[in-house]
Design goal:
This protein is about 0% helix and about 50% strand. With about 80 residues, it is mostly beta strands. It has one domain. Strands 1, 2, 3, 4 and 5 form a 5-stranded antiparallel sheet that branches. A hairpin with a 4-residue loop joins β1 and β2. The radius of gyration is 14 Å and the shape is elongated. About 10% of the residues are buried.
């Protein structure tokens, strides 16, 4: 992400709907953007337990103020803990 003039926090949020269950979320508040920043990697982890399967996944950009954000090259990784 790259930002320009972000007046309050902007951050990634990921919603994961578990098959046969509810929707849960993960917010990357520890990696929030404020002000003007050049291109940086940002991530928001989400942990599935045992045999849980994600039926639907949404990645969102949340703004708590004004400004501009550019996003490119969004990737989803699966990794063991």
């Amino acid at each position: 992400m790259q930002s320009k003039g972000v007046t309050s926090k902007a951050y990634l949020e990921m919603d994961c709907t578990i098959a046969g269950k509810d929707t849960y979320f993960s917010k990357a508040l520890q990696d929030a953007v404020v002000g003007t920043q050049n291109w940086r990697w940002h991530q928001t982890p989400f942990y599935l337990r045992g045999t849980e399967a994600c039926a639907e996944l949404q990645v969102k950009l949340v703004f708590e103020g004004a400004g501009q954000i550019w996003v490119k090259d969004v990737e989803l990784f699966r990794a063991p803990i």
